[in-house]
Specification:
Elements (H helix, E strand, L loop, with lengths): L28 E4 L5 H9 L3 E2 L8 E3 L4 E5 L7 H8 L4 E4 L3 H10 L12 H12 L3 E8 L2 E11 L2 E9 L4 H15 L4 E5 L3 H5 L3 E3 L1 H12 L7 H5 L2 E2 L5
Parallel strand pairs: 8-9
Antiparallel strand pairs: 1-3, 2-3, 4-9, 4-10, 5-6, 5-11, 6-7, 7-8
């Protein structure tokens, strides 16, 4: 029997279906349709929902159960990685080159994925979000070379991670650890990592029941935080993460 999904209303401020009604198989599939306006995306993230689809598919919205989450103080780097960082000249910044980060995330080959879910429409949508101050990147550099990074969406005191990449061994790990170092300093307790994979678990990610996740983010997204990310983040030496 074909799956019949709720279709989103034309109004980007219109409500999403209750995430608790998402399908069990495929896990978390909640709704289809709508658009990728910044208003709708912010509405989605604030309610524990995110878009994920491939070229040729309709726009699909997800809220998986369980949800993969980092406690920002709980990111783990291996002993070997920490030893390497003590001798590293890498630096970590934010919002220094959002466009290059999202393009790198889209182009890096990934195991088990024939292509990218960062479609041209998704790329354009998150670039708009960045220009409006809602989407942010973290860049790891070795001199002028971009060796790793990530990007995601910030609402209130909650960061929703979207994708990360490495162009040198450990680049994405340093981006995540650097971001979480700053988020701890800013008293942002959680980072959403969406869907579990073995790599994230080695870095300290946890699997939370969806209900716990939704309850945890509700007060965080309701707070008011407004600042220039690039300035407040500053330049963090990677060796400080060792």
């Amino acid at each position: 029997m074909p799956i019949r999904l709720p279709e989103l209303p034309a109004d980007p401020d219109g409500p999403f279906p209750d995430p608790r009604t998402a399908l069990r198989e495929p896990d978390g599939l909640l709704a289809m349709g709508g658009d990728l306006t910044s208003t709708r995306l912010l509405n989605a993230y604030a309610h524990g929902v995110f878009p994920w689809y491939s070229d040729g598919q309709p726009l699909l919205w997800w809220s998986p159960d369980p949800r993969t989450v980092f406690r920002t103080e709980g990111v783990r780097l291996s002993t070997r990685m920490r030893r390497t960082l003590r001798r590293s000249d890498w630096t970590v910044q934010a919002d220094a080159d959002f466009e290059r980060v999202i393009d790198a995330c889209a182009s890096i080959p990934r195991d088990g994925q024939p292509g990218t879910w960062i479609t041209p429409a998704m790329r354009a949508a998150y670039l708009r979000m960045h220009q409006l101050g809602h989407a942010h990147s973290v860049e790891v550099r070795d001199g002028d070379r971009l060796v790793g990074g990530l990007y995601g969406v910030a609402i209130g005191r909650m960061f929703f991670g979207e994708s990360m990449f490495s162009a040198a061994s450990g680049g994405s790990k340093v981006a995540l650890a650097g971001l979480c170092r700053r988020l701890v300093e800013w008293e942002w307790p959680l980072l959403d990592a969406q869907v579990e994979n073995p790599h994230l678990l080695t870095l300290g990610a946890e699997s939370w029941p969806r209900e716990r996740f939704l309850q945890a983010i509700a007060p965080l997204v309701a707070t008011q935080e407004s600042f220039d990310w690039r300035t407040r983040f500053g330049v963090l030496p990677a060796r400080a993460l060792a």
